[in-house]
Write a structure and sequence with these properties.
Structural class of chain A: alpha+beta
Strand content of chain A: 5-15%
CATH topology of chain A: Arc Repressor Mutant, subunit A
Oligomer: homodimer
CATH class of chain A: Mainly Alpha
Order of helices and strands of chain A: HHEHHEEH
Largest sheet of chain A: 3 strands, antiparallel
Number of helices of chain A: 5
CATH architecture of chain A: Orthogonal Bundle
Helix content of chain A: 55-70%
Strand order of the largest sheet of chain A: 1-3-2
Largest interface: A-B, 54 and 55 residues
Amino acid sequence: MGATKTEHFTDKQNAIATLAKALGHPARVAIIEYLMKVDACICGDIVNELPLAQPTVSQHLKELKNAGLIKGSIEGNAICYCIDENALSILQSYFATISDNLERKKINCC
Amino acid sequence: MGATKTEHFTDKQNAIATLAKALGHPARVAIIEYLMKVDACICGDIVNELPLAQPTVSQHLKELKNAGLIKGSIEGNAICYCIDENALSILQSYFATISDNLERKKINCC
DNA sequence: TTTTTATATTGCAATATTACGATAAATAAT
DNA sequence: ATTATTTATCGTAATATTGCAATATAAAAA
């Protein structure tokens, strides 16, 4: 098969899975971290920062964009990418909630 | 190809990507949420909770275990699974750090 | 001991992902 | 107008993932 059975899961579960999947590759984690580091929207540069060919980087950027993790706007003949804060705040609050619950329960039976 | 070039990225980036990838499927998100909900280690039940065949669920559990998100211990003829708090706390603090940085910067140029 | 219960493994088909060379498209610079 | 620069898309090969039926394994129950 290879196709995910999304229809059986909740919208929230699918949304989290989509965001997580987009970060499920080190190059895409590196892109997010680079966008954080440079402290600004980046027009270009990303290809030079990564050990991957330009079409590959372009593809990774597209996936991050499709997942909603980054935004891109055309700026002359370059494209300006930056992090979508909303998506990251969804992930932040999701994992904060889980960690809080685990902290409160302290099951620890395994 | 299809194989990820992990060797060019930092250990941290690969670690985050591995955890994120493991959560990049709604069934695996659902498993984590179920383990949270039942408030205990679960021996069995997981297969009945998911709309997937037993071998498929077993495979998803294996991937969560390989990524370090859950632990499993043999309990008679059943297996007792529970969340590995450490892995979730890594994700929690990673996204908290990113969100904090974004909050502080407020770039918002795209 | 045979049967049941719970989980894992194997094998396979369908599809998705990763990576890149070649090329296109679109604006900027000369 | 031509050339350079920047990014996207196409095509394709290699590999990975998803899902399940069939089967194996191993302990519990009968």
